[in-house]
Amino acid sequence: MDSRLEDILKWFKDSRGNITVLTGAGISAESGIPTFRGKDGYWTVGSKEYHPQEMATFRMFKLRPYDVWQWYLYRKTVCARAKPNSGHFALVELENIFMERFCLITQNVDGLHLRAGNTTERTYQIHGNINFMRCSRECSDEIFPVPPEIPPQDKTSRISEEEKRLLVCPHCGALSRPHVLWFDECYNEKYFRFDSSIRKAKETDLLLVVGTSGATNLPMQVGSLVVRKGGAIIDINPEINPFSGMAERVKNGYHYQGSSGEILPEIVDFLKA
Ligand code: APR
């Protein structure tokens, strides 16, 4: 391991401070889930008819709810067929080492962190979870699992009348919607742990950023708050991105250019030694 990185990790170990991990689609790439802006990314390839990011809007959901559901059920199937990788498992070890000093803020809706073993208590899914749905009329704040009776869907499947009857709010019977944050919607605390993420950022001594291109708002706010606090930032990404820039600006910063599946176990081994 590079001595500068070792120095940062030693500093953190001695500080007995708080560690926050911020993840993006890159950590799940080695599990076979496409990223968003990579060569085969969802926003690069997208759906047959529409500009990719249009599908991820409440506007499109109102216009064509079953096309949007179709696309999310297809992505849910891709996530269900994937398995957590060594990067996910390393973060479970990290939570077990640092417990209440640990927090995981993930942009991923794939649910792989929870499947690997991170706790719901310390895992903030700030863009939602594709395995859940809620009432599109918001008759309650409750979040429900997508009915398991709905079979796996591939890219060309069409939702059947029977499946449409299952995609409803268990309380009021209105159409349900995927529990994900869409581009024309805002972060909040009740669904996406916005305030909790900001609070954690202000208490963070070491921020580990993994596999994100820094294209969304709250993650960038988290990074800026850690910079302002003088905390350390380690960015793990094969590509340069706004967080590697932040890491270069702080005293204790490091951009580890490579894959999270290899690098995270190495860092955890060093921290637990
Ligand atoms: N290990 C680490 N990083 C990787 C790996 C890997 N094996 N493979 C790819 N990456 C990096 C890429 O270099 C890229 O910087 O992961 C990043 C993925 O970036 P995006 O595809 O933009 O995904 P993400 O940053 O998670 O997108 C953020 O945008 O579209 C919205 O809601 C969506 O949650 C998503 C958010």
Relevant terms:
three-stranded antiparallel beta sheet; 273 residues; binds adenosine-5-diphosphoribose; alpha/beta
Structure characterization notes:
By secondary structure, this protein is α/β, with parallel strands linked by helices. Helices cover 44% and strands 15% of the residues. The chain contains 14 helices and 9 strands. The chain has a 6-stranded parallel β-sheet, sandwiched between helices. The protein has a 3-stranded antiparallel β-sheet with strand order 5-4-6, covered by helices on one side. Helix 12 packs parallel to helix 13 (242-249). The two termini are 14 Å apart. The model has no long low-confidence stretch (mean pLDDT 95).
Write the SSE topology:
Elements: H1 3-15, E1 19-23, H2 26-29, H3 42-45, H4 52-55, H5 58-63, H6 65-81, H7 86-98, E2 102-106, H8 112-116, E3 123-125, E4 128-135, E5 144-145, H9 161-166, E6 176-180, H10 189-192, H11 194-202, E7 206-210, H12 217-229, E8 232-236, H13 242-249, E9 253-256, H14 260-272
Bound molecules: adenosine-5-diphosphoribose (APR).
Adenosine-5-diphosphoribose binds next to helix 2.
